[in-house]
């Protein structure tokens, strides 16, 4: 594998330190920091290690560019980290686009529907969507509901979606627009999307032109906002 690094200017770099990561075979791990030593005309070697501190990792991350520029967070932002942004959107009417081979779904293409309050999460280039049954700003303990959309099994199947190249606060509207301007074409996974007696198509058929989404047809996702925000490997 070939790797290229663009540092933006001519600089001379010398090997100065090494981080060794130790794993137990399970989830446990720790790291040690070693200075690089070298005697004249001899091979470099590692000096005795010392524990890696949070301050060192923070400085290292900043040097590698993993930092967030100061932002004024609007009320709709629920959580923010260097590689994740979570926000919610109030209930509102939106146009939906349907594609694929389901003829009944295609009859709904381009119509306006009411939508429940939604919770979006962007992690890297991946978009995740949940919904809530309340019109109030979600708290850490608010129960999440499954988003009643095709192509969405928590993580959104991008399909025809034009994925924004940013994940900062200023790009929130771009992510929402990208999600709803793409086509919903098929179920993603085996997750139940709605408890409506006529299923997914029946739900949206009944909502065309209406002004309020019936939250009684939302399905419990089995997690709180706190659990939804947590990285998958920490759940």
Give structural attributes:
6-stranded antiparallel beta sheet, 16% helix, alpha+beta, 4-stranded antiparallel beta sheet, elongated, single chain, 5 helices, 235 residues
Question: What does this protein structure show overall?
Answer:
The chain has 235 residues and is of the alpha+beta class. The protein has five helices and 16 strands.
Shape: elongated
Write the H/E string, N to C.
Answer: EEEEHEEEEHEEEEEEHEHEH
Main beta sheet: 6 strands, antiparallel
Report the β-strand fraction as a percent range: 25-35%
Strand order of the largest sheet: 5-6-10-11-12-16
Note poorly predicted spans: none
Note the total helix count.
5
Whole-number radius of gyration? 24 Å
- SS-based class: alpha+beta
Q: How helical, in percent, are the residues?
A: 10-25%
Which whole number gives the mean pLDDT? 88
Number of strands: 16
Distance between the termini: 33 Å
Record the SSE blueprint.
Elements: E1 17-23, E2 29-37, E3 45-46, E4 50-51, H1 54-63, E5 77-81, E6 84-89, E7 92-95, E8 97-98, H2 103-106, E9 112-115, E10 117-123, E11 126-132, E12 143-146, E13 152-153, E14 155-156, H3 172-181, E15 183-184, H4 199-207, E16 220-224, H5 225-229
Explain briefly what this protein structure is.
The chain has 235 residues and is an alpha+beta fold. The chain has helices at residues 54-63, 103-106, 172-181, 199-207, 225-229, and strands at residues 17-23, 29-37, 45-46, 50-51, 77-81, 84-89, 92-95, 97-98, 112-115, 117-123, 126-132, 143-146, 152-153, 155-156, 183-184, 220-224.
């Amino acid at each position: 594998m070939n790797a290229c690094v663009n540092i933006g200017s001519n600089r001379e770099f010398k090997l100065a330190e090494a981080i060794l990561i130790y794993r137990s075979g399970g989830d446990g791990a720790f790291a040690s920091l070693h200075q690089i030593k070298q005697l004249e005309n001899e091979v470099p070697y590692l000096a005795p290690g010392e524990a890696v501190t949070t301050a060192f990792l923070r400085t290292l991350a900043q040097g590698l560019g993993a930092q967030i520029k100061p932002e004024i967070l609007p009320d709709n932002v629920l959580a923010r980290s260097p590689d994740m942004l979570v926000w919610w959107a109030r209930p509102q009417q939106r146009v939906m686009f349907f594609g694929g081979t389901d003829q009944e779904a295609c009859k709904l293409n381009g119509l306006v529907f009411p939508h429940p309050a939604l919770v979006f999460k962007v992690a890297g280039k991946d978009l995740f969507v949940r919904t809530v049954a309340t019109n109030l700003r979600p708290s850490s303990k608010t129960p999440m509901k499954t988003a009643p959309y095709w192509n969405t099994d928590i993580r959104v199947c991008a399909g025809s979606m034009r994925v924004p190249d940013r994940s900062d606060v200023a790009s929130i509207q771009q992510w929402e627009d990208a999600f709803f301007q793409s086509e919903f074409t098929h179920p993603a996974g085996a997750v139940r999307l709605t408890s409506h007696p006529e299923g997914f198509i029946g739900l949206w058929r009944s909502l065309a032109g209406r002004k309020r989404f019936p939250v009684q047809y939302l399905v419990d996702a089995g997690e709180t906002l706190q659990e939804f925000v947590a990285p998958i490997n920490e759940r």
